[in-house]
Amino acid sequence: MSQTTMQNEWVLGFEGIAYQGVSRRAFLLSGTGVAFGVSFGGTLAGISEAFAQSGEFSPNGWVRVAPDGTVTVYSPASEMGQGVMTSMPLLLAEEMDLDWSRVKVEQAPYIPKVFGNPRFGGGMTTGASRTTQGYYDLIRLAGLQARLIMVQAAAEKWGVPASEVSTEPHFAVHRASGRRMGYGEIASFAKVPAEAPKVDKAQLKPMSQHRLIGKDVGRVDVPSKVVGQAIYGIDVRLPGMLYGAVLRTPVQGEKPEKIDDAAALKVPGVVKVVPLPYGVGVVAENYPAAKKAKALLKVEWSKTAKARAYSSDKIIAEYAARARNLSDSSGVDFIKEGDAKGAMAGAAKTISAEFTTEHVAHMCMEPMNATALVNGEKIEVWAPSQSPFFIFIATSVRLGYKPENVTSHVTLLGGGFGRRVEADYVTDAALLAKAMEGKPVKVVWSREDDVQNDKYRPITAQHVSAGLDANGKLIALRHRMVGESIYARAAPAIFQQAGGKDQPFCEGSEIKYDVPNHLVEFLREQRGVDVGFWRAVGGGYTKFALETVIDECARSAKQDPLDYRMALLEKEPRARRVLEEVAKMADWKTKRPAGRALGLAYSDMWNVHLATIVEASVDRKTGRVRVHEVWGAVDPGVAVQPKNIEAQIESATMYGISHVLMERITFKDGAVVQSNFHDYPVLRMNEAPIVHTKVIPTDNYPGGIGEVGLTTIPPAVANAVFSLTGKRLRALPFEQKLLRA
Question: CA angle at residue 152 from 149 to 154, to 5 degrees?
Answer without folding.
Answer: 110
